[in-house]
Amino acid sequence: MALFSTVVLCLSGLVGGASFTLSSDQPEPTCHDWGEAGQGAELVLEGESGWLSCPLFSHPMVYNYSSAHRAGLNLFWYRVPVGQDLEQPIRYSQRLSKDRERLWLQPATAEDTGQYICMLRNRTSCTKISVTLEVVSPKPQGCEPPVATAPRQVAAPLQEDTTLVCPDLEDVAKMADSHPSVTWYHRCFVFPFWDPDRVVQAGSLHINIMSIQYQGLYYCQVQYSKKNRTGAFTRALNVTGVSPSILPKFPSILHPNKDQVYSVRRDMEVRLQCQALFPYLDGAWELWWSIDGKRVGQLQDPRFSSISSPVKSYFGDRTEQSVLLIQDFQRHDLDTEFNCSARNQLGFATHRATLQEEVYLPSVELGCGLGVTLVLMLLLFVVYHVFWLELLLLYRSWFGTDERHTDDKEFDVYISYARNSEEENFAVTTLRKVLENELGYSVCIFDRDSLPGGTITDETLSFVGRSRRLLVVLSPGYAARGSQALLELKAGIDSMALGGHLRVILVQYKPVQRRGWVRELRSAHVVLALVRWQGERSSALSSTFWKRLRLQLPVQQLVKVGKDGG
């Protein structure tokens, strides 16, 4: 292996234009391998010019090509083709040449893809490092030229002049026979563009006044000649407009402001939010929370932590956010000083967060209680809407006043009806039977309870006056002029008008038009209770008719209410 390396080095030196001899009795130096360069693979577009720079010279403080050459160190290039493991010396040609620390490919071909090793050595020392080259095929992308490398980001202040320099143009200009020519593209247009604000000067694109419409991708194609060979390559720049440099560039704290108060609760997680505006600057910036003068990272208390995230970016002006998390907040934390600070290369800003303990409100308990209350109210509304008659009867039976203990009346109900077969049958058979036998009321009917030979008028007035309710069976033809029913109705209405204890109840047995009512009934019907009989639907004791009627009759004891099942 040592013999093979010696032969390789000798061949490389001859090919590279440098010759040296190794003494057979001098041991070969151990080559220090720095591995592979960390910047990733170098990309070159197939058919374009490209080059590899030896990464050993990327840090001039460690290695400098001129100094290394004067010290007797020589640079050699080797190649490990794709799919192979052995290093092969590079045979230089017009297409593949070495210039100082660079290996030029003019142009690159697909076979050039692989790993390249640059070795810097003399008789006593050896250092090498590898770099990967990838030759990519050009892919059509509309009207824009293909490129192999990622676009270079360029920030251009709005309303100011900006100069765009094609990347790697200066490196090519140093080794070209003449100044290279550059062609610029923007949005599928080739220079000269549609406006007079952009001009080309010495291969660079100069924008006199940067505006929003000049943003986007720019492409530059460089053509040059070297030793009667032409080469070309394409680069891209992504131009973004940023805020003008004449605007203030000092950072500012947006939250917390001077009047903002954070409400906190003990034994809970507290989140303090800080937002800061960083105007565009090509430099570093930072946003942090400090607790009693120490940053969160300097504290030993695990209760404190912070999370940073971007909020928005507007023409390069960044709004950043940092959230301070405090686990298990305690009372003594109210006496702690919490500051949010921001800094860039021009200035510093800080605001203190004002904390106020929040009075605990049992929101969950209140919410549950309110929900239960609303449900109960809804249920009560439904129950009352469906069973309001039963509830009123139950209430009267418990809290109503028994009129029999407060007056000297003899009868509970006096029934007045038209003297014909149908109304009389309803009044005597249905009303009287249910009121007396089922509900336990004392009922007075003139034709049954009056004594023979008496005066009709006097006895009618007497019976009405000794009754607590006057039950009028209302039907067509009721209270005709000079009838007994009219006398009973007038007596009842007069008693109510004079403030007596008698109340008149209208039971509509058959529909009656208002124009058929007598004058006394038309004038008093507004204050009279009206209960409608609906035939078979009202026959059952549990029907609405009997419940409504019982509400107008004197209060019965609870035992009697239970007896009828009402």
Labels describing this entry:
4 domains; 566 residues; six-stranded mixed beta sheet; Immunoglobulin-like; 32 strands; disordered C terminus; single chain; alpha/beta; rod-shaped; disordered N terminus
Task: Report on this structure.
With 566 residues, the chain is an alpha/beta fold. The protein folds into four domains: 135 residues, Immunoglobulin-like, CATH 2.60.40.10; 91 residues, Immunoglobulins (Immunoglobulin-like); 106 residues, Immunoglobulins (Immunoglobulin-like); 163 residues, Toll/interleukin-1 receptor homology (TIR) domain (Rossmann fold, 3-Layer(aba) Sandwich), CATH 3.40.50.10140. The chain has eleven helices and 32 strands. The strands form eight sheets. Strands 1, 2, 4, 5, 8 and 9 form a six-stranded mixed β-sheet that branches. Strand 6 and strand 7 form a beta hairpin. Helix 4 crosses helix 10 and helix 7 packs across helix 8. The radius of gyration is 55 Å and the shape is rod-shaped. The N terminus and C terminus are likely disordered.
Write down how many β-strands occur, each being a DSSP E stretch of 2 or more residues.
32
Structural class: alpha/beta
Kindly provide the radius of gyration, computed on alpha-carbon positions and rounded to a whole number of angstroms.
55 Å
Tally of contiguous helical segments? 11
Task: Average the pLDDT over all residues and give the rounded result.
Answer: 84
**CATH topology-level fold name of the largest domain:** Rossmann fold
Report the major sheet.
6 strands, mixed
Q: Which range best describes the helical content: under 10%, 10-25%, 25-40%, 40-55%, 55-70% or over 70%?
A: 10-25%
Bulk shape: rod-shaped
Report strand %: 25-35%
CATH class of the largest domain: Alpha Beta
Uncertain segments are: 1-24, 559-566
Measure the end-to-end span.
Answer: 117 Å
CATH architecture of the largest domain: 3-Layer(aba) Sandwich
Supply the CATH superfamily name of the largest domain: Toll/interleukin-1 receptor homology (TIR) domain
Counting structural domains, the number is: 4
